[in-house]
């Protein structure tokens, strides 16, 4: 075994920053909000960074980090290129997962649900509030497609800078997606790997709550 792997294997730590009681909340979104707030207050790096998991039409999974930009009553909003790899995969299969990990709190939250495009007017609002270079980038970057080199990207940035010297319109292929949850798991690290795991499964118009073994 190489030295680096030796380090990985022997790098053990205990989790002791908190605990998670049964019956803590009937509403997983409220619990999520309070955990998110805790992460924000504890200065977690990018508390809104989330691993989005998708599965393509051949049942092959893939994941990447995106930013959660909004929490609405119906779900969690992210923004991306609809023609990207993730965009194609969710068209083929709208079942997705989200994974938040807040190291400072020794907490992770797993969310599963269905994803769909949000109202174009909400996407417009968000796009219009982005910095200009990000707006130009949304036109310039054909996200997830092969390019011969970085120059191609830079040339496209220049092209769209000239095309839109003033306001930049939202590209039709760029906008928001909302993940409507059907399942949550709240995980709080505990000593000896005896972690707390509280789950919420959507059942009709209710959330069934239960604990699972660590
Ligand atoms: C911290 C962080 C935040 C990111 N936020 C976004 C985001 O909000 N939207 C997005 O499309 N890509 C975001 N990315 C880039 C994605 O991880 C990914 O590279 C990109 O969306 C293409 O993924 P795809 O080819 O699977 O579609 C972020 C990456 C990191 C590391």
Reconstruct the topology from this structure:
Blueprint (H helix, E strand, L loop, with lengths): L2 H8 L17 H14 L7 E7 L5 E12 L2 E7 L3 H8 L2 E8 L4 E11 L2 H9 L3 H9 L9 H14 L10 E15 L7 E8 L2 E6 L3
Antiparallel strand pairs: 1-2, 1-4, 2-3, 3-6, 4-5, 5-6, 6-7, 7-8
Helix pairs in contact: 5-6
Characteristic terms for this protein:
35% strand; 6 helices; six-stranded antiparallel barrel; Pnp Oxidase, Chain A; alpha+beta; binds flavin mononucleotide
In short:
By secondary structure, the protein is α+β, with helices and mostly antiparallel strands.
CATH class of the domain at 18-120 and 173-211: Mainly Beta
Number of strands: 8
Assign the CATH topology of the domain at 18-120 and 173-211: Pnp Oxidase, Chain A
Helicity range of the residues? 25-40%
Helix/strand order, N-terminal first: HHEEEHEEHHHEEE
Ends: how far apart?
Answer: 29 Å
Largest sheet: 6 strands, antiparallel, barrel
User: Which strand order do you get reading across the main beta sheet?
Assistant: 1-2-3-6-5-4
- CATH architectural grouping of the domain at 18-120 and 173-211: Roll
List of distinct ligands in this structure:
flavin mononucleotide
What is the overall shape?
globular
Give the structural class: alpha+beta
Q: What are the low-pLDDT stretches, counting only 5+ consecutive residues below 50? A: none
The count of helical stretches stands at 6
Mean pLDDT: 96
Task: Report Rg.
Answer: 20 Å
